[in-house]
Specification:
alpha/beta; Rossmann fold; eight-stranded mixed β-sheet; 6 helices; hydrolase activity; AB_hydrolase_fold; Dienelactn_hydro; Dienelactone_hydrolase-like
Length: 232
Amino acid sequence: MNEQRPFQNVTFPSAGREAHGYLARPESGSGPGVIVIQEWWGLVDHIRDVTDRLAAEGFVALAPDLYGGRVAHDGAEAARIMRDLPEEEGARLLAGAVDYLLSLPEVTSSTVGAIGFCMGGGFVLQLAAQQGERVSAAVPFYGVGQGVPNDFSGVRAAVQGHYGEHDRGYPAAEARKQAEQIRRESGAEVEFFFYDAGHAFANDSNPQGNYRPEAAKLAWSRAVQFLKDKVR
């Protein structure tokens, strides 16, 4: 996959320091911009693969490294590293990633989309609330963690969420309440989909073994079409 499309590890200024990320471009060389936000495991191969898959769909996709090169190998380690990331620092780093992505000449859109998973799904909503009009599409997959904002009034993006009916970490009832809160506080277009699956059902490399291929395929197709429709 990587041999067919341009990709590179990049650095960019963010939150008063130098940040790192993984950037993938489509074969055409240009396209709309999408931020990909990692799970609590870090910038692992699965997130790079998601970034590559978005490039294959025509996007210029950037996955910022929120952990500064650290990756987790089990749930306990992931929880510790996630706790070490202050919510404010993560939000500032992602703001710098938006600045960087929109500055690239190959990015054809005036806004970005954002897609994220688990902790990254929470930070997708944080980024949309923080960046307002600059984020036109927000796609949280089972968004949990300290990244979830308390106030969604700044959201201007259309929101499409993907959640498991059997998610023990973030129950579907809570996700439905969140969808209503986003809709009520922001007035944004909000649609959450629910699947016969548990947490992290879209991660085919998840060490916790929750991957559900059919649900993952359906959620991915919906997410890609949504990003194509909304990011301009």
